[in-house]
Amino acid sequence: MQLSKIVHFHKTIGDKTRIRIIYLLKSGPLHGQAIAGKLGLKPPTISHHLAKLKEIDVVTQRRDKNTIYFYLNEEKLKRMAEAITKIGGINLDNELIVSEEEKAKVIQNFIDSTGRLKTIPAQRKKKNILLEYMVRGLEQGKQYKEEEINEHILRYHEDYATIRREFVMTQFMYRQDGVYELNPKEMWPV
């Protein structure tokens, strides 16, 4: 994730009404009218703020018959909020710290003698270690077309679409308009 993405996140979150919406959604999903009533604001104002929060993927929505409910994406909120501490080299979440020995063991168990991935593990921690292994050959600061990323992934696994999606979802890479770029290593989940 580029620094500009972190800045955009914090600018979007840096609004009293949006923080109050996040606080309300921590208790569970609500529809727009309920949020407006609880905050004493008009529905169009709430719609505007919810659109901004959806833009940074902190809020998602689901339709139930004629009502749209808004949900807090707590995992994304936490990851983005912590990203700024990782840039400074500080990692406050000890669960994310993985030793080099542990990484080597996972790689040994899931990578065959030709360097290809045997299977994609279900456990997130192991999957992240293997994703890190697969992005090693990519250059920091270089922009890649989707076809280039696909070719790179095919060296490791035939399901390039899944792996490519995982690169983005786990913050190893940033994607915009079909162009991929590695995020700073401090933002990687391992």
Straight-line N-to-C gap: 14 Å
Q: Widest sheet: strand order?
A: 1-3-2
What structural category characterises the helix and strand content?
A: alpha+beta
How would you describe the shape? elongated
Instruction: Count every beta strand, where a strand is a DSSP E run of 2 or more residues.
Output: 6
CATH topology of the largest domain: Arc Repressor Mutant, subunit A
**Element-level helix/strand string:** HHEHHEEHHHEHHEE
Q: Mean pLDDT, nearest integer?
A: 88
Helix content: 40-55%
Count of helical segments? 9
Sheet with the most strands? 3 strands, antiparallel
CATH class of the largest domain: Mainly Alpha
> What is the name of the CATH architecture of the largest domain?
Orthogonal Bundle
Low-confidence blocks of residues: 88-96
Q: Approximately how much beta-strand content do the residues carry?
A: 5-15%
What's the number of structural domains?
2
Rg value: 19 Å
What do these coordinates show?
This protein has 190 residues and is an alpha+beta fold. The chain folds into two domains: 73 residues, Arc Repressor Mutant, subunit A, CATH 1.10.10.10; 90 residues, Arc Repressor Mutant, subunit A (Orthogonal Bundle). The protein has nine helices and six strands. The strands form two sheets. A three-stranded antiparallel β-sheet has the order 1-3-2. A three-stranded antiparallel β-sheet has the order 4-6-5. A hairpin with a 2-residue loop joins strand 5 and strand 6. Helix 8 crosses helix 9. The longest helix has 14 residues. The two termini are 14 Å apart. The relative contact order is 0.11. About 5% of the residues have low confidence.
